[in-house]
Amino acid sequence: MTRTGPRVARSATALMFSNRYFDPVEGSRLYQEYLEHYRLAEEVGFDGIMLNEHHNAPFCMQAKCNIFASILAAMTKRVKLVLLGNPLPLADNPVRLAEELSMIDMISKGRLVSGFVRGGGQEQLAAGVNPAYNRERFEEAHELIVRAWTQTGPFRFEGTHYQHRVVNPWAVPLQKPHPRIWIPGVLSKETIIWSARQRYPYIALSTAIDATKKIWELYDSVAAEAGYTAGPENRGYLQRCHVADTEEKAMANARHFMWMQGEFTGLAHPVWSTPSGYFSPSYRKAFVEFAVGRGANPRAATFEDQIRNQQIIAGTPKTVIPKLRRLLEETRPSIVGFWASDGFVSNEDSKKCIRMLGLEVLPAVREIGKELGLLSPFEANAPVSIAHSTPPAPAMA
Fold first, then answer.
1. DSSP string spanning 233-254?
2. Which tens digit of pLDDT belongs to each residue from 47-73?
3. Per the structure, how many domains does the chain have?
4. Burial of 226 (0-12, 13-18, 19+ CB in 10 A)
5. Inside any domain, residue 393
6. Closest to 91 measured CA to CA, from 65, 70, 73
7. pLDDT given at position 16
8. Which residues fall within 8 angstroms of residue 60, CB to CB, at 6 or more apart?
């Protein structure tokens, strides 16, 4: 066996790393800290807070983003609750998911942004879902959820993967026609194309600037074919960005962003993360070649490389703002999310980072956005989708 092979096997913690190593006492403590961070984010001026979920993996404790969203819907007053998002192919009952999201929207008085994802490859295996049907299930569940939100019941739904003799939910969204839907992703062309055809904002997840420009080129061309002109309101970007009092402290803490890339916890085995049918054959080939030692990890840029290409930004407020300006000038997103810390960064350092971002960085970013004409979907009053091309009605509560 090659040297790459056993290293891959040892680091494959997602999916098969035993949960006997999980300490619920520590888990309880961390949940309280995370809730404290979200409250602080609203206090210091963030416009929204983002939630996601992962399964069978030690790098994420949110097994259901809707649970935290429900708590935060009652705890917060102003911020948008941005779910990026619910993995639709794993849903056994999309109508029930539509009801849960409707409840969150009503409790929060219309602050829900409901992102949808396909879920990781290994999560299909954990949930017992055939990965070959991942995209089919995603699109069919999406159709059923939107219809449950917008179509008067009762009606019948007969799909390939979901069959409901009666769809008649008594929990429907406060926002009309429905909450905004955002689609996060990395570089999947199929997902970019689908998002553009729906006129849903696509949220690029920490992609390099050059790669992000290519995403928008593809999105814009599909949008033109669909009959509309895409703009900043259709573009989002999740930036890993840690700020601290000193450059040295910020850089040391920023190294913990490598947690999600396997440097600390490991990832899923490449064959598990890209099971047959989940990705296109060419994309899966790169992961399989890595698994058997014939190629490099397709997602394994070094920390230093990611600092250079700005996939990770770290420093004091004074030094990170020019780098964020470059991101805004070159890729022109109107939706910018901040992934502020990860791994073993202390609670105090995490809170300090949130405060400095909210009080010192965000005001400058907003001014740059105004200067560049980067209106968000809310500021532009953009349609929620191509199917509902008129601007949405304001939520009344």
1. GGEEEEEEEEE-SSHHHHHHHH
2. 999 999 988 878 888 889 999 999 999
3. 1
4. middle
5. no
6. 65
7. 82
8. 52, 53, 54
Residue 105's identity, in one-letter code, is: D
Start-to-end Cα distance in the chain: 63
Residue 202 structure tokens: 């696509």
The sheet with strand 48-51 has its strands ordered as 48-51, 80-87, 112-117
Tell me, yes or no, whether 397 lies in a domain.
Answer: no
Nearest to 88 by CA among 50, 163, 141: 141
For position 295, what pLDDT does the model report?
66
3-state secondary structure (DSSP) of residue 167: strand
- Summarised one tens digit per residue, pLDDT across range 176-188 is 999 999 999 987 8
Q: Residue 289's CB: how many other CB atoms inside 10 A?
A: 15
Q: Which of 138, 55, 162, 119 is nearest to 274 (CA)?
A: 119
**Cis peptide, bond prior to residue 48, ω within 30 of zero:** no
Report pLDDT for 4.
36
Q: What is the pTM of this model?
A: 0.92
What is the pLDDT, as a whole number, of residue 7?
40
Q: Is the CB of residue 359 less than 8 Å from the CB of residue 320?
A: no
For residue range 338-385, list pLDDT tens digits in order.
Answer: 999 998 999 999 999 999 999 999 999 999 999 999 999 999 999 999
Neighbours of 227 (CB within 10 A): 9
**In the chain, % of residues over pLDDT 90:** 75
Check residue 293 and give left, alpha or beta (phi > 0: left; psi -120 to 50: alpha): left
Helix (H) or strand (E) holding 4: helix 4-11
* CA–CA distance, 362 with 129 (Å, rounded to integer): 41
Structural tokens at position 288:
């399989």
Residue 152 DSSP class:
P
Residue 385 covered by a domain: no
Residue type (1 letter), 394: P
Q: Is 392 left (phi over 0), alpha (psi -120 to 50) or beta?
A: beta
3-class DSSP state of 163: strand
User: Which domain covers residue 80, as residue numbers?
Assistant: 4-372
Q: Which CATH number is 239's domain given?
A: 3.20.20.30
Q: What is the C-alpha to C-alpha distance for residues 333 and 369, in angstroms, rounded to an integer?
A: 9
pLDDT band with cut points at 50, 70 and 90 for residue 12: low
Residue 391 counted as domain residue: no
